[in-house]
Design brief:
The chain contains 29 helices and 27 strands. The protein has a seven-stranded mixed sheet with strand order 21-22-20-19-23-26-27. A hairpin with a 6-residue loop joins strand 13 and strand 14. It is extended and about 140 Å long. The chain starts with a strand and ends with a helix.
Length: about 900
Amino acid sequence: MSALVRTTGLPSSRDVKGTRVRIGAPVVIGAPLQLFRCRCSRILSRSRPSNTFITPFYLCTLAGIECRDSGALEFTLRAAHILTMLGVHAPTRKRIYQVTELSSFPVLPLRDMVVFPHMVVPLFVGRDKSVRALETVMADDKQILLASQKDHTQEDPASDDIFSVGVLANVLQLLKLPDGTVKVLVEGQRRVRITEFVREDGYFEAKIAEMPDTDAEPKEIAALMRSVQNEFERYAKVRKNIPDEALAAIADTTDAATLADLAAGHLGSAVDKKQAILEMTALSARLEEIYAQMQGELSVLQVERKIKTRVKSQMERTQREYYLNEQMKAIQKELGDGEDGQNELAELEAKIAATKFSKEARDKAEAELKKLKNMSPMSAEATVVRNYLDWMLSIPWGVKTRVKKDLGRAQKVLDEDHYSLDKVKERIVEYLAVQSRSAKLKGPIMCLVGPPGVGKTSLGRSVARATGREFIRISLGGVRDESEIRGHRRTYIGSMPGKIIQALKKAKTTNPLILLDEIDKMGQDFRGDPASAMLEVLDPEQNGTFVDHYLEVEYDLSNIMFLTTANSYNMPGPLLDRMEVIPLSGYTEDEKLEIARSHLLPKSVKNHGLKRGELTISDNAITQAIRLYTREAGVRNLERELNKIARKAVTNIVKKETDKVIVARDNLEDFLGVPRYRFGSAESEDQIGVVTGLAWTQVGGELLQIEALRLPGKGRMKTTGKLGDVMKESIDAASSFVRSIAPEIGVQPPRFDALDIHVHVPEGATPKDGPSAGVGMVTSIVSVLTQIPVRKNVAMTGEVTLRGNVLAIGGLKEKLLAALRGGIDTVLIPQENAKDLPEIPDNVKEGLAIIPVSHVSEVLKHALVRMPEPVEWDAEADEAARLARMSSKPEEASNRPAH
């Protein structure tokens, strides 16, 4: 793609001062430089008038180069070097500028470079001020002042940031590039000094003054010129990047100023050193400085060359030593002298022979050993094979731990470590009983699902201790890479087996108990789905042939007893189907009290260095701590509160304030502070429209207060208390059912159209949802309509239908515990939940009167202080009366006197 190129100093035709010059065939931009140089030499060898000015661009034109392409800029620069080499030092412009005190020129600040007179250099200009300065120069056909910046990192320099000495230059060519920058070719003319900046907005413009050279002794100048020329020849040989044309031009130059400027332009010195040369007007001093800088550069370049030579020789020596070492190893191998390597291989061979591999694993190990014998011990592949054999030999093959089958001992161990959790203990004992009769029984895969802190992880250790198995815990929380389970393939650097094989290496037995903790918290991403990889591990029909990607052989996992834990059922269906799920509900208040008394408190006393009798905590204090300072399904926070009491007790004893600490219900706040929670309690008196419901939460059961209020209105139903959609629908169903039985509860149906009912569930910031409060909603609405109070000692739970039937609910145990804790003595539950009562602790059933109900009529019978009296209501008669009233209203209006 061609670009616009503006040039200066070119004749309008190819007739130069009356001398007709014959043009040769055009030269393509990509033509060899030698052809271009020959053509230039022929043109310059022709006779021409003495006043003919030859410029680099004019030379390009004569040589057949058309300046319409950006590639012509390179040929123009080469032409300038050829002109200098051939001794043609003519002005590059037809017009010579005379500098006066009033002369001002646009200034182009240079970054990290210094331009000297007689230099032809290309510049890339991108700053706005610099581009505008170039545009002014091209528009006015003026010269431009090139001055270097003091700090090359400044993007927008001020006038004080520019050196006061620069070079007045001609713009030979200007090329606008597609990205908005400008590529310009300039030729330095003479050094000048900036006397004053006359413009700084838009672009810099400054007044300048001439800096004429001061002559010295001719003999001294001649000697310095010869020294500089000789030194530059040496410098060019070491520097390597100086063109031959420049070397020839400097060797043939007879003018001292031109020699100094040409040599200085090729120095590799820093900007400040070059600027110092530019500012020198004394020729002798300038040549001496150039000579000194070249010598300094030569010494540095020579040192660099020595370093490169030394490094190269060291590398060659290292390669030579490596080659000789390899030769020596080959010779030793032929002579049988490689004792260390042979001993290692013999040791591996003996271990492989002694290990009880499967047939597939033995064949694989022997094949890898054979491959290792034929490899160089120093090769990378040998290290990979050696690591593989180490893994194959470090995991157990056919090594089993004797499983203890004493049922009595197992039950004792489980009871010692954990209070309650009867279902889990029963399942473990059943497994041991069956295993004592059948040795072919595969290990069970149980999944303990429950809230945090109920003892799922610690139960795994107890099961391992009860069965005599090695215990290994694998945390799966946050695992997203399938290779963490199946292992990494050996092609990757740093590859290793998966977590299952690593656990077996640690256990050193093929039948440990592996606890897969937090299995519901595995994720998936672009690296695979680890939950899918667990399908093979946890399937008793498949894990006997488990293949790890690293081992690449089958390994039998069927002897392992897997125990998994989870906080929820949020797992893939196929994975959940492979496990025997055992739900663990939260501990009851009595269970927490017993756990604190038997396990947590003795542990806290021991850990804090207390002696027996120094700390005593009453049962009432522990119960109060459970109710007012913790809200959890487990006992972790309770343990923290007991530790807090122990710390304060130790502090008081160490300060010698007391010999022993007794914590009771009355002084509990002195140790734990202000209570953080409140627990629901029964109402103090029977109230209209106030019903005590029962709710289930993740931290246990709660009493749920339901309030209803009637007020004059238009039959609307309003609900508040941050209720979920299911609970709102339950209220709608309750309202519709109550309207359908209005006469039975003593309410005339038209009464509904004159009243609004507002149902509210307190603690409005807490979200509430679920259908189990349906019977409570019905009771509350009936109470507020009939103005009959609800018994204060009755709580209820159950879903209600439009026909008034009471349906089953979940979380019965937790709800009954909340009722007992809150002082309730009578609980109404759905008839369908009566089958769950055997699983309720005896102390709960003894403390509550649990009444199963199947219809709302039974609920009202037990919940209200008295049953409402039914009323008779004829719908047809009521409708006729309503129509009669409506027809009488217009007649009354017509008989009303007008005012």
